[in-house]
From TrEMBL:
Keywords noted in UniProt: DNA-binding, Phosphoprotein, Transcription, Transcription regulation
OmpR/PhoB-type domain ranges (all copies): 137-236
SMART domains per record: REC, Trans_reg_C
Protein name, UniProt field: Response regulator transcription factor
Keyword Nucleotide-binding: no
Superkingdom per UniProt: Bacteria
Classification via SUPFAM superfamilies: C-terminal effector domain of the bipartite response regulators (SSF46894), CheY-like (SSF52172)
Keyword Phosphoprotein: yes
Length: 237
């Protein structure tokens, strides 16, 4: 459990891992003005140390860090933290975006970027989940899957699945409408944010993660089905 905070920052904790120190300072300044407690890291090792020490709500992660690169940092962070990871990647580098998402990142923003847009993205990820307080019947059962909304836990065959927050929220969105096909845009609006702009294939990457953790085939046939030309649906089995 995270120790009780003693600082006066209402927005949450953020680690900015960026090797360009002037850029890191500028981002940190804008976030601090918005009420966040911000720590900076300038190498991959420093980023990991900061995540361990700060237990942040959000990690802003440049993929081009010296030492350990951002992809490896993201993989290691995912093994020890549920914080949201927002990766920074070079303009037009689609492969970097997909690699970052495959490593467990929740969102990305391309360089060069507007710091105000970055701050807006941080607020967007912190608004997840957007479902408000869990209902009284806050446990859903879909097939052999048990979804504990209040406890933020997914169980299958009495085993707790190690899902990230985004994967959990995606599964919650699908389970809220069993047998109903949801488009990628609908899932983005429910899990990311209605103002999110970017490649809708981010949904496909996270669905792939979910299927793997559910022990299902990449192409479907399990609880999560692909609806060609539309998106995805959850089918109780």
């Amino acid at each position: 459990m995270r120790a009780e905070r003693t600082d006066h920052h209402s927005g949450g904790r953020i680690v900015v891992a960026e090797d360009e120190k002037p850029l890191a300072q500028m981002v940190a300044t804008y976030l601090s003005r918005d009420g966040f407690h911000v720590e900076q890291a300038h190498t991959g090792v420093q980023a990991l140390d900061s995540v361990r020490a700060e237990e942040p709500d959000v990690l802003i992660l440049d993929l081009g860090l010296p030492g350990l690169d951002g992809i490896e940092v993201c993989r290691r962070v995912r093994a020890m933290s549920e914080c949201y990871v927002l990766i920074l990647t070079a303009r037009g580098s689609e492969n970097d975006k997909l690699l970052g998402l495959a490593a467990g990142a929740d969102d990305y923003i391309t360089k060069p970027f507007s710091v105000r847009e970055l701050v807006a993205r941080v607020h967007a990820v912190l608004r997840r989940p957007r479902t408000g307080n869990p209902p009284q019947d806050s446990v859903r059962v879909v097939g052999d899957l048990t979804i504990d909304l209040a406890g933020h836990e997914i169980r299958r065959a009495d085993a707790v699945l190690p899902l990230t927050r985004t994967e959990f929220n995606l599964l919650v969105a699908l389970s809220a409408a069993p047998n109903r096909a949801l488009s990628r845009r609908q899932l983005i609006d429910a899990v990311w944010d209605t103002s999110w702009v970017g490649d809708e294939r981010i949904v496909d990457v996270h669905i792939g993660h979910l299927r793997r953790k559910l022990g299902e085939e990449p192409d479907g046939g399990g609880l999560i089905e692909t609806v060609r030309g539309v998106g995805y649906r959850m089918v109780p089995r």
